Amino acid sequence: RIVRLPMRLDSEPAGATVTAGDRTVGQTPLVWVASPQQDVHLKLTRPGYRPLSVAVRTGTAPTALLTMFLVPTRERQLDHRIEAAPTRDGASGGWLVDRSGCLHHFADFGAPARWTYRSGDLSGLLTTPLPHGGALWLGSLDGTLRAIDAGDGTLRHQIANLPTELQPVVCAGQLVVATSDQRLVAFDPSRAEPTGERQLASGPVWLHAIRRGLVVVTADGHASACSSLDSEPLWQATLPVRGDLRGTATETFAVLADDHGNCVAVDLGSGATLWHRELPGALPGPSAAGPWVWVTTPERVLALGLRDAAQGPSWPASTAWSGPAVALGDRLLVPSRDGAVHVLDSATGKPLGRIEGGKEPPQIHPFGARGAMVALADRRVLFFDTLP
């Protein structure tokens, strides 16, 4: 008598159609009964995911969990790596800067670039483009601020002696640059002429535009807001963070984190510290969505209340997380040391599939209301218009 053994097949995400040879077995999760010690070739398919083919030896394990990877809406292979966030232009296009110091415009990220501007900067480090007045304003570590015509990629203006790693902001109709040599410098963007300058006590590490002006935070933890560079500060505060910062902001709050595990929430209207948490081992890069700010450690990704740091959902890593989670609506994208980006339902922690990652954590940026751009170390850039 032939003994047939049950085997449970599951997939991440569930709902994949399973075929064995020419026979459809069912949809995951399912229990499949088969003769032991047989090598069976299975194929899993699900709309929006790459087909998965695996060989399974029956009778060796009672369960099998198979992981599926999302298919990007568009994919581009570039000559150089992308490290800065994209600037959108319509539903499927925009501008990207790469590590060779080039700015590219794509009418559609699935098609070749319409034009490319080559800065020639030795460092190749340009800021995320800021669209304003029909131009794209680019800061650079080499010190040249440029205005590139958004339509044809020609150079409109360039101003020297402004080294920066922070995207410029617009404040009271003026373009403001926070330089690495501890200055805030304002310009009339129509003529590219300086209109004001303010010396900072330390190097700026975070610059953000607010409705009433701008907020700047320096490496020594000093934060201040002003409506313009020639006005008195709206507020000043000393924050319990030091050194390089990563931050996320809503209209009213900002959450900043440093490399030492300090995470602080600030009221952008008053400068008041709402809360401060010490999270040893936290990966810098908080991400806000809804009432939560998500913070990542190698062991888990956890939610803290934006207003009061109240403990929210917390999802453990299947393997150690390698980079900070990016919150996109009710979805979380978390890079893992297994080389993939895990897509999770933020409310339940349910895995919804994975995205290609690689040995180095990829750059993950929002792309639309519920989409993402994932830039890989091999210079490929994946675009997902809508996450599952």
Structural class: mainly beta
Strand order, sheet with most strands: 3-2-5-6
Q: What oligomerization state is this entry in? A: single chain
Radius of gyration: 24 Å
Largest sheet: 4 strands, antiparallel
* Overall pLDDT level: 92
Question: Number of DSSP helices?
Answer: 0
Shape: globular
- Parts with pLDDT < 50 across at least 5 consecutive residues: none
Helix-residue proportion: under 10%
β content, as a range?
Answer: over 45%
Distance between the terminal alpha carbons, to the nearest Å?
Answer: 46 Å
Number of strands: 39
What are the main properties of this structure?
about 400 residues, mainly beta, globular, 4-stranded antiparallel sheet
What does this structure look like?
The chain is mainly beta and 388 residues long. The protein is built from no helices and 39 strands. The strands form 10 sheets. The chain has a 4-stranded antiparallel β-sheet with strand order 3-2-5-6, with no helix packed on it. It is globular, with a radius of gyration of 24 Å. The two termini are 46 Å apart.
SSE inventory with pairings:
Elements: E1 5-12, E2 17-20, E3 23-27, E4 30-34, E5 39-45, E6 52-57, E7 63-67, E8 74-77, E9 87-89, E10 93-97, E11 102-106, E12 115-118, E13 130-132, E14 135-138, E15 145-149, E16 155-159, E17 169-171, E18 174-179, E19 183-188, E20 193-199, E21 204-210, E22 213-218, E23 222-226, E24 235-238, E25 245-249, E26 253-258, E27 262-267, E28 273-278, E29 283-289, E30 292-296, E31 300-305, E32 311-316, E33 326-328, E34 331-335, E35 340-345, E36 351-356, E37 363-366, E38 372-375, E39 380-384
Parallel strand pairs: 1-7
Antiparallel strand pairs: 1-4, 2-3, 2-5, 5-6, 8-39, 9-10, 10-11, 11-12, 13-14, 14-15, 15-16, 17-18, 18-19, 19-20, 21-22, 22-23, 23-24, 25-26, 26-27, 27-28, 29-30, 30-31, 31-32, 33-34, 34-35, 35-36, 37-38, 38-39
